[in-house]
C-alpha cells in the first residue's frame, strides 16, 4: 500500500508538487486550481474538502496563490 503524504507547509507542498505533478505549477494550471478549489460548490472542491477537510482546502488555495505570486516575481 502506498503511503499518502499530506503536506503541512507551503515548502512541503511545493516539493511534493514539483516531484509528482510539476505541470500543475504552470500559470494557467495554478489559476484553474485556484478557481476550482475556491468555489465551495464545485464538485472537485467538495470532494477535496470531504477527503482532507475545509481547513486544508483553504490552505492549499493559499499555497496556489503564493505559487502564482512567486511565478510573477520571477518574470
TrEMBL record:
Protein name: Uncharacterized protein
Organism of this sequence: Uabimicrobium amorphum
Domain of life: Bacteria
Amino acid at each position: 500500500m502506498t503511503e499518502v503524504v499530506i503536506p503541512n507547509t507551503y515548502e512541503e507542498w511545493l516539493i511534493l508538487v514539483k516531484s509528482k505533478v510539476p505541470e500543475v505549477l504552470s500559470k494557467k494550471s495554478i489559476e484553474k486550481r485556484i478557481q476550482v478549489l475556491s468555489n465551495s460548490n464545485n464538485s472537485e472542491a467538495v470532494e477535496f474538502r470531504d477527503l482532507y477537510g475545509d481547513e486544508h482546502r483553504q490552505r492549499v488555495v493559499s499555497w496556489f496563490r503564493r505559487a502564482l505570486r512567486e511565478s510573477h516575481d520571477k518574470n
